[in-house]
C-alpha cells in the first residue's frame, strides 16, 4: 500500500514507464489517455492517481484485443498488484464495450486473485465461469 505522496508518485511514474516499455505506448499516447486530467504532471500535482489508472486502463483496452488483454494481465500480475490503486486500471480494462461476457469472464479469471471478488461484484456473477 502506498501511504505517502512520494511513494504514490514513484509508483505512478514507474507504471507509466512500464506502459511505455511493455506496451510501447508513446509519450503522446499517455498524454492522450490522461488529457481529461491535464496530463501526467497534473495527475501528480493533484494526486489523482486512481482516476489516472482508470483513464489509462480505458485507453489500453481500446488498443488491445480481448486475447491481448488476457495475455497482458496474465503476464503482468506483479506489476498490477505493486500498488493497490492499480486495481482501477485492471477494472477499467474490462469496461470496454467490445468485450463479450465470455471474454470478460476469461480476463477476470486472469487478473490477480485479490482483484477477482471485486470485479465479479462490479461486472456481475455471470463472469465467474469462463469458457
Write a concise synopsis of the structure shown.
This protein is mostly helical and 131 residues long.
Structural summary, described in words:
The chain is mostly helical. The chain has one domain. It contains nine helices and no strands. α4 runs parallel beside α7 and α5 (66-75) packs parallel to α8. The longest helix is centred in the first third of the chain and has 18 residues, at 5-22. The chain starts with a helix and ends in an 8-residue tail after the last helix. Mean pLDDT is 92; it is low at 127-131.
Largest sheet: none
Globally, the shape reads globular
**How much of the polypeptide forms β-strand, as a percent range?**
under 5%
Secondary structure: helix percent: 55-70%
**What structural category characterises the helix and strand content?**
mainly alpha
Q: Count structural domains.
A: 1
* Tally of helical segments: 9
Gyration radius (Cα, Å) is 14 Å
Mean pLDDT: 92
Q: N-to-C terminal Cα separation, in Å? A: 33 Å
Order of helices and strands: HHHHHHHHH
Which features characterize this protein?
single chain, 131 residues, mainly alpha, 9 helices
Layout of helices and strands:
Layout: H1 5-22, H2 27-33, H3 39-46, H4 49-63, H5 66-75, H6 77-81, H7 87-93, H8 101-110, H9 116-123
Helix pairs in contact: 4-7, 5-8
Amino acid at each position: 500500500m502506498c501511504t505517502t505522496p512520494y511513494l504514490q508518485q514513484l509508483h505512478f511514474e514507474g507504471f507509466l514507464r512500464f506502459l511505455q516499455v511493455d506496451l510501447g505506448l508513446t509519450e503522446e499516447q499517455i498524454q492522450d489517455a490522461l488529457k481529461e486530467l491535464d496530463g501526467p504532471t497534473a495527475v501528480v500535482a493533484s494526486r489523482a492517481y486512481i482516476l489516472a489508472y482508470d483513464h489509462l486502463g480505458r485507453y489500453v483496452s481500446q488498443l488491445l484485443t480481448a486475447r491481448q488483454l488476457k495475455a497482458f494481465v496474465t503476464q503482468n500480475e506483479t506489476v498490477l498488484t505493486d500498488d493497490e490503486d492499480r486495481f482501477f486500471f485492471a477494472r477499467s480494462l474490462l469496461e470496454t464495450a467490445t468485450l463479450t461476457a465470455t471474454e470478460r469472464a476469461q480476463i477476470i479469471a486472469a487478473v490477480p486473485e485479490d482483484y477477482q471478488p471485486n470485479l465479479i461484484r462490479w461486472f456481475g456473477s455471470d463472469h465467474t465461469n469462463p469458457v
